[in-house]
Amino acid sequence: METEHVEGKSAGNGILASGRQTMSDSAKPTLESNDAYPSVEELIAKARAPVKREYLRQSGTRVLANTVVMTEETMAKLREEEGDDAEMMPSGNSIPKTSVEKKSKRQQRRDRKEARSNKSVENLCGSVAKTGDVNACRFGTSCHFNHDLAAYLAQKPPDIPGQCPFLGGDIRCPYGYACRYVGTHPKTSSADLEGQLSKAETRDKNGPLSSIQELNNLNKGFQKLLWKNAVTFPKADAQLGALGLLGKAKKIVMKISANGSEKDTKQSAPMDPAPELSLVESLGNEIKEGIKPVSPTDLVLNNLDVKLLATPKRIRTETETTEFGDDGHEIFGFRENGDEERTNREIEDDKDWKSMANEVTLPLREKKLIDFRGKLYLAPLTTVGNLPFRRVCKKLGADITCGEMAMCTNLLQGQASEWALLRRHAEEDMFGVQICGAHPDTVARAAELIERECQVDFIDLNLGCPIDLVVNKGAGSSLLTKPARLEQIVRATAAAIDTPLTLKVRMGYFEGRNCAHSLIPRMARWGASAVTVHGRTRQQRYSKAADWDYVQQCVREVPDDLQLVGNGDIFSYTEYGKHIQACGSKLATCMIARGALVKPWIFTEIKEQRHWDITAEERLNILRDYVAFGLKHWGSDTKGVETTRHFLLEWLSYAHRYIPVGLLEVIPQQLNWRPPNYFGRNDLETLMASDSAADWVRLTELVLGPPPSNFTFSPKHKSNAYDKAENG
């Protein structure tokens, strides 16, 4: 058996870096040659991976992914709290998810506030950490954080082996004494320290997070304007008003004081419903009274004389529902009693809508172009598709990257956690953000806001998210059942921005009732630049293989001025090439999603046209790259290290499903194959193949050191649920 060295300790027969005893080849409980075992064809038919028999092992007791893993100290504390019920708890350092009560967000905020008020020694002031000077903080004694540097260093965990990720350039580590790699920081004099800090301040003034080459950071002052609802959206609201979708929107007015300064105030002034009243006339009285209105439909700035039209309303009975015909078009007026005739009122409403769309025309702006043809596209991936993971994929060959899905309402409310999903690294030369919303006003305004405040190459609208939390709000894949609202959203958003708007859809909402092929030709007229088709329905989720025959059907329907991207179950360069060849030149490229989570080097395989039999050490180096990128993104202090560990564990909940090429009877591996219990070619490869959350924690110890005493982890996604569609 080959011996592999990890962090100076042998990863062969003996002790792993986590301290766990390993077995020699002779002691491994492999299957005997006379044991009954299915053939390769039978295994593939049952979606079971055909691993070579010499690597198989008997089933043993493992800590599965649906448990909560914690340290021995935390487990002992939990047993003490349980008291007499502790005997009912399982042994070891893991318990079922249902046994752990998660703190509410309100309780978490209270805990953080209490920790700050007590000036805990763990919460060192950032200014003191950077300089080592207790007088460096401009808030002095009123600061909510600890200024006792000696007390902080006394309780600080030991440094992590390795070098600080901020070394190797002119960038000084922004975490100073709080960095978990402070021992590797160069010794600097006070004069040199002041010079480096002044350079850092100059660099930060040039652009947010410019020192670590990250863009699209939310400015604190702008965030406060969003909190106060004091941000205007002239482009989006002009389009919404022209389409009759603005409704009773509030106007933001600027009162002009005597000295000429402007103060933000909010005045609830619904739009005049009179359809024939021009915008200039409706605002004349406010101008005479000394109020300068910043109207949502600020068409006066463009010297336009556009009349606002009343919004046509569709009248439906209580028993009326939405249905689709055989061609996927929506059938209005379907009633449970079988009467499918449309009323005269409904027909008149449709005529009003069509006449409105034809009558209201705004000047066309030059649209930016984007070309996806022949480029490798990393899909937007919730939780795991963060900036460090995208940098890993970019290093391994990805051409197009897209941020995690952000909810439009949360962006408009200025939620920092949602804006963090829009962050972009300078290495991402073709980058987009994905947004999700249920109404034309929120989506159009969020898109205008992103275009104005961020640097993106395209904005992707999610129309395929199957998660119940999103669907129940009328967003995501539920919009496929509402073509009229979908048209309103796409038209208003595409017209409000110059950045290309792309759409991501599923085949349909219900199984067997596909509608994407009938919507795609209309999406080009609505203003979309590209459409991605995922070969599954919302009802199907991930329970069956992607239907690429239907993707080919959509390719035949796509107009020449619209790019179409295919998506679903791409896990090797042969599958990628097969789909590109089968769909022809009208298919721009293929989007790679879960395949990149399991093996991000799939981009390298596609570009080099080979099945890469990657070694365990090479895979560990990829994890090291992720950790380095994560520490730069989330920070190299204790909080940043544990945040990096958490997201690394979320990624490992997918990555453990990869089966090395040299262990398979048949290649390439399929995404829906369930791997059996098997040994790797060395102990590190065996550890990486484990579906035990406790083993994933041991893997993080190789690159981030041991976790803290109060550490717990529970996977967010049930990525090992092959038969059930529980992963959203």
Please name the defining characteristics of this protein.
single chain; 728 residues; alpha/beta; 8-stranded parallel β-sheet; 3-stranded antiparallel β-sheet; 25 helices; 12% strand; zinc
Task: Please describe what this structure looks like.
The longest helix has 19 residues, at 616-634. Helix 14 runs parallel beside helix 16, helix 19 crosses helix 21 (602-608) and helix 23 crosses helix 25 (693-704). Residues 1-27, 61-65, 202-208, 248-364 and 719-728 have low confidence and may be disordered. The strands form six sheets. An eight-stranded parallel sheet has the order 11-19-18-17-16-15-14-12. Strands 4-3-20 form a three-stranded antiparallel sheet. The protein is of the alpha/beta class. Residues 1-33, 80-120 are annotated as: Disordered.
Would you spell out the secondary-structure blueprint of this structure?
Elements: E1 5-6, E2 9-10, H1 40-45, E3 67-70, H2 72-82, E4 94-96, H3 105-117, H4 126-131, H5 149-155, H6 190-206, E5 214-215, H7 220-227, H8 234-242, E6 251-256, E7 262-267, H9 279-288, E8 291-294, E9 320-324, E10 330-335, H10 344-359, E11 377-378, H11 387-395, E12 401-407, H12 408-412, H13 416-419, E13 424-425, E14 431-436, H14 440-453, E15 458-463, H15 468-471, H16 483-496, E16 501-506, H17 516-526, E17 530-534, H18 548-557, E18 563-567, H19 573-583, E19 587-592, H20 594-598, H21 602-608, H22 616-634, H23 638-655, H24 683-688, H25 693-704, E20 712-713
Parallel strand pairs: 11-19, 12-14, 14-15, 15-16, 16-17, 17-18, 18-19
Antiparallel strand pairs: 1-2, 3-4, 3-20, 5-13, 6-7, 6-8, 9-10
Helix pairs in contact: 8-14, 8-16, 11-22, 14-16, 17-18, 19-21, 22-23, 23-25
